[in-house]
Every structure is written in structure tokens, then in C-alpha cells.
Design goal:
The structure is a homodimer. Helices cover about 35% and strands about 20% of the residues of chain A. With about 400 residues, the first copy, chain A, is an alpha/beta fold. Chain A has two domains: about 140 residues, Peroxisomal Thiolase, Chain A, domain 1 (3-Layer(aba) Sandwich); about 220 residues, Peroxisomal Thiolase, Chain A, domain 1 (3-Layer(aba) Sandwich). In chain A, α4 crosses α13 and α7 packs across α11. The interface between A and B is large, with 57 and 57 residues.
Chain lengths: ~400, ~400
């Protein structure tokens, strides 16, 4: 079976912008198509991750982007799993190429979150929770993750300062990433002195509201060889996905079962183990997520994921040497919901092709991505990407 | 390559109901799972077509339904292409099984349109048009299709009475379908005397606003043989999809290019021609659509699709013998947007397994489905289904 390749990537600016979703997509597309001869002729299908039609009163994003990209008579559709929508789009592209359905598929993510302000974004995101059984309690994303954080701190004897260190580390990484929403360092006091959003989570424990778009082109290895050098390409070696409880009820609050399942599927398909991963973008929508996911996907022992902010040599026994959220993560690179899963792949591309500048992890040849939608394992999607040469 | 089978189907009531989307799904699922041993253990993946999060302020419909169906650690996601969402879900299920990715996939569609009344539905549907370039003109689905209808009548010298005959025929079919929203016949005067919605389209030229859900289980032939008799199953022989212009600008208004492309792809994969099709559900959201699509997918010569209401022996030369919209179509069976593409497959199942009662087309062994999203060929999805025995 052919190993699909990521031959090019593109990312718009991420943050508060005056651009529409289509404009953001144009910026990402221009970069992804740059240097390719007749790219629109090449593309056989398009998938786009997009979370909310209410941000722009726009559905049919598949057709909208296909038309904008100059595609004709190809399948194009929007996929949605809240914040995991981007990785769902990437997974379709990878699987379509792996299975021989298509030779070249464009995977995109677009979100224009700032149109309705923070209240609008919070309202739109709350649609990811069960309308009949949860939304009526007024529960929001921060309040659900606060429940997980409370339990994590209680069970493992950790503190809010431990959580804050993850935010500090991710801002430090973002300061070295010219594509990040927040390109500045913060210190522990900045986090600890910030207002509670939902205790124990404070403002600086939470990812921001962001506009942004991203695109990657996935092709067969044969086509990839025609289009460029393998040193500029990645192999999409493995993927996995799972959808479990939409609510946080009746589950182990400190282990993300679906993420474990998705990661194991991706590792198995790629023929790697967690210990082989050099760089990983996990879904740090809230600081506690990075700790929970580091444990759930096999990087850290139970209760020790909170050490993700430490240099590898200072972490507890049982931790791998993985560097987490080198882009700055959702926390500081930014979190344009439907685009996040694709933006994670852009960071993997920069790291594995040696383009990551001051944040480059030397010798990185295996990257892991974990994208979540809803709370905990409502939707989880994992990818293993490797250097193609 | 294995020929996927549709082993079971389910359809909720269709129309104005007091049920939530999840309740409607439960009804469809109960029917689709009926008689299967441990169906939840069987299902490897779930796709759900759903158009609007605003109807119920609910996204993450993939996870919501997966949890309700008792599925654990399987991929589940929502796909969206406005009114073509259901067929996009079906196509993923069929392709996943065809390519060997999964052995059993549940394809669903859900829509709870009546929550916001007719104005709410019209507003939600208008999100399918280009926000920046079209929505601001106030254009809606009926007004866009009215442009196509005006052009069709003008070019082919037809009348509003010709359009009305399609509505009368589809209501006649629905009167014989216990699952239809409108189980009563109407006459030509009912259509012609009804109010204009957007000239030349009148109230009775338009499909209704409907709640409803549908589900089909697609499996490998090996698994299908274990689960039941081939006489109770269909072969999913071919599928195709295309996404073209989101707007009606700069196109031939009387030919749906994308539908032609999707149909030819599906016929080619199935090894059949248009003339082999016995029964077809096409996307008669407005009466003119049935005429346009009959021509675009090869059933009728250009300008003669309007004769779809006539018995085959009375139609112009060049028409096939196909019977169209035997369920009553979107017009009278009802049009729960995201569920429509799956509901079309339910009618094919009933026709090809001899369960269609008073509307049974004798000897039907090949069915064709065409599901559209947006206007004209914004998204078009085609399927060819055949008797398995």
C-alpha cells in the first residue's frame, strides 16, 4: 500500500484579523500551491474542517473553497468534529491516497472565530456539548476542562503552578515562531495572577479565540517524486480516530481513552512506538490537556504528564524525550478551531524538513499530532508523520 | 475489489414532529438494527449528514449518534454539503467498505428543521450561498431555483402547468407511501392556484420543511452473507460526487454539469448505463429540478425532462423507461435536508427488495440516486444500487 506524502503546506496569519474565512484560506492556499506547476489541475478532492456556520453564516465550505482553488468536478466537502475538524480533513486526505481512491487531495481548515467576539465564540463552541443533557446546565468548554483539571490536581497532588509552567513553556516556543498568534514570552506570575475563567483554569491556561486557515497537499509517492524533492516532503505514516462520550460523565477524568486508542492505531499503522516520536503537537486547548494527553498517548507515566514543560533530562523516569508543542501549541500559536488540526501538520512539516528556525528540534524525524474535538475523547484524531528523506 | 452491500435501512417519521434530532435518529436506528445480532459490536465507523447547527444549536453529531448507538472507540463524524450531506455520508460508508478500510459502516442523516419555523429554515438554508457575494443580495433557495425555472421554461417553450404535473405525480406516489410526509393526492389546480413563492415557482412546486432521520448499514459481502439473505440486501455498485460553482453565475442554467459528472462516474463504476436504471430518486427540491436532473443524468433528451410525470410509453423518443421519485420525492415524501440522501436509499431498498407495496415498480433491479446541495451543481452526489440477489 502506498505511503501518502505531504508535499506542501500553507498557513495564514493566526489571530484577530479583518479577513473573511475565504481570504484566510486564500493566504494558506497561495503558500501550499507555491512552486507547484498547475496545482489546481492536480487536485482530485478537497476536504475542509470548519466548526461553526454561525461565525460567518456560511455552510458549503467545501464547494466555496473548491471554487476558490479553481477545482472543477471533484468531490469537495466540509467535515466537522468541533476542534478536531482539521485533523478529520487531513485523515480523509491521507486515507483516500493510501487506499488508492485519489492521487492528490487538498486538506484544509478554516475558522473565522472573531466575528462574534468572545461571547459568540463561547456560544458557538458550546454547541459541541449535548443540547438536551448538558448545554441547558450552562456548561462551556472551560468549565468542562476545569472539571478535568480539578480532578487531575487532586489525584496527582499537583498545583496550579504546575499547570502554569506549561503555559510559560508554550509561550516561550511561540516567541520563536513567526507564525504564532502570541510571539512573546510570559512568566509564571503572568499566568498565576490572571483571572480565573473556571477554577483552577485561569485566563493564561486557556487557548485564545483565533481566526486562521491552513492547507496541506497530500499525494501518492509517485506524484510527490514528480513534484519535488523528498527532503521537502513528509510521509503520512499512520492515522487513527475515535469518537466516544460527548459528555464527561461516567469516565476516568484523568485518562483520555479515545486519544489512547487513536494514537495506538496511528503508531501501529506507522510501525513506530511512542518512544520514537521526536516532536509532538497535542491539543493544549487548556494547559491541563497537554498533561492529560502526554499520558494518554504514551509519552509520560500516569500522573507525570504535568512535567511536559521540563527539559527531557529533568522529567521523571518513564517519560520519552519528546518535545511538546514546539509551535507554541494551541495556547500561544493560536487555536482557529477547524484549522488547528492542519496547523499542527504545518508545524510538523517545518520541524521535519529543518525549517523551524530558532525552535528547531535537532534530528527530528518523527512527529505526532493529536487533535481533539469537544471535551476529552468526544472526538480524537492522531497522525504520525515522518521525514520522507 | 469487494462490492459493498446495504444490509439494512431505517427511516423515522418525516414531517413536523415534536422529536429532537436524536429521537428521530433513534427511530431510524431501531429499524436499521432490528434483527441484527449485536449490531453495535459490528459497526466500525459512523458518518452523519446534517446541515445546520442552528436548528438545534448542536454540532458534534458524529459523536452524539455514536454514543447513542452504543459505539466505542470508532471514528464518527459529521459531513456537510447542505442538502447533499446525507449522500456524502452514504458515499463515505460505501467507499470505506469498498477500499477495505472498514467492514461495517453506519451512514446516517438527521435534520430537525422545524425548530425555527419556516423563516428559520429559510435563513439556515441561505447559509449555503456565498456570504460575501450572494447572501447580501437576499437571495434564497427558492429564488435561485426560480432563475433556473424561468430559463428552462423560456428555452424549451414549457409552461407552469408542465411543472405542476411533476408535483401532482409525486404527490400521487406519496399517497401510496406510508412513510411520506404528505400522503394525499393533489390535482393540477391545487398547484396552479397556490401562491407564488418565487415566480414561476409556487408553493406546491416546492419541497416542504421537514424533520427526519434515516440510517443504512453498509458492509462487506462476506459480512452481509453472515447477517442475512441476499434477497433482503442491495449492492452499492457505484458512486460519484462533484462540487462546482457555489453560485448560479456563469453557467448553463438548464444543464447540471456536476450531476452529469457524478452520474457518469457512478454508472462507470457500476458498469451500467442510464438506460439500465429502473427506478430513480432525484433531487426534486423544486419541480423544475426533476426535469433538469432527468436530462443531466441521461434519462431524457435536452428539453424533454419536463415529461417525467408522464408514463414511460407517452414520453418523447430518447427517454428511458425509468420511474422517477417513486417515494413521492423530496416534494411529497418530505425533505429533511441532511437525511434526504439516506432516505433516497431507503426508497431504493424498498423498491429493489419488493417491499414498496402499492407503488412497487415490477422487476426493478437497478436504482439510481441523485442528491444535490446548494443550487444546481454546487454539490452533487450519485449512487447506483442494485439487487443483491
Amino acid at each position: 500500500m502506498p505511503q501518502p506524502r505531504i508535499v506542501s503546506v500553507g498557513l495564514s496569519e493566526v489571530g484577530r484579523t479583518d479577513l473573511t474565512g475565504r481570504d484566510l484560506f486564500s493566504a494558506a492556499l497561495a503558500e501550499a500551491f507555491s512552486g507547484l506547476p498547475d496545482p489546481a489541475e492536480l487536485v482530485d478532492a478537497l476536504y475542509v474542517g470548519n466548526q461553526s456556520e454561525t461565525y460567518e453564516h456560511q455552510i458549503m465550505y467545501g464547494t466555496l473553497l473548491a471554487e476558490w482553488a479553481g477545482l472543477t468536478n471533484v468531490p469537495a466537502e466540509r467535515v466537522e468534529g468541533c476542534a478536531a475538524a482539521g485533523a478529520l480533513a487531513l485523515r480523509h486526505a491521507v486515507e483516500d491516497v493510501r487506499q488508492g481512491t485519489h492521487d492528490a487531495v487538498l486538506a484544509c481548515g478554516v475558522e473565522k472565530m472573531t466575528a462574534g467576539g468572545t461571547a459568540g465564540a463561547t456560544d458557538a463552541l458550546s454547541a459541541a456539548f449535548d443540547r438536551a443533557l448538558e448545554q441547558r446546565s450552562g456548561i462551556t468548554a472551560p468549565s468542562q476542562y476545569a472539571l478535568l483539571a480539578q480532578r487531575y490536581l487532586h489525584e496527582h497532588g499537583c498545583t496550579e503552578e504546575d499547570l502554569a509552567r506549561i503555559a510559560v513553556k508554550n509561550h516561550r516556543n511561540a516567541a520563536q515562531n513567526p507564525r504564532a498568534q502570541f510571539q512573546r514570552e510570559i512568566d509564571l506570575d503572568t499566568v498565576l495572577d490572571s483571572d480565573y475563567i473556571a477554577p483552577p483554569l485561569k485566563l493564561f491556561d486557556c487557548a485564545p479565540v483565533s481566526d486562521g486557515a491552513a492547507a496541506v497537499l497530500v499525494t501518492t509517492p509517485e506524484l510527490a517524486d514528480e513534484l519535488g524533492d523528498a527532503e521537502d516532503q513528509l510521509v503520512a505514516a499512520g492515522s487513527g480516530a475515535a469518537a466516544n462520550n460527548i459528555s464527561v460523565a461516567e469516565r476516568d477524568l484523568t485518562f483520555v481513552e479515545g486519544a489512547n486508542h487513536a494514537a495506538e492505531t496511528a503508531y501501529g499503522q506507522a510501525g513506530v512506538e511512542a518512544a520514537d516520536v521526536d516532536v509532538a503537537e497535542v491539543h493544549d486547548a487548556f494547559t491541563v490537556c497537554e498533561a492529560l494527553l502526554a499520558e494518554s498517548v504514551g509519552f509520560a507515566p500516569r500522573g507525570k504528564g504535568i512535567e511536559s514543560a521540563l527539559p527531557p533530562e529533568e522529567r521523571s523516569e518513564g517519560w520519552t524525550d519528546v518535545e511538546l508543542s514546539t509551535s507554541g501549541g494551541l495556547k500561544a500559536r493560536g487555536h482557529p478551531i477547524g484549522a488547528t488540526g492542519i496547523a499542527q501538520a504545518v508545524e510538523a512539516y517545518e520541524q521535519l524538513t529543518g525549517r523551524a528556525g530558532d525552535r528547531q528540534v535537532e534530528g527530528a524525524d518523527t512527529a505526532f499530532l493529536l487533535n481533539e474535538g469537544g471535551v476529552a475523547d468526544a472526538v480524537t484524531v492522531a497522525h504520525v508523520l515522518r521525514r520522507a528523506a
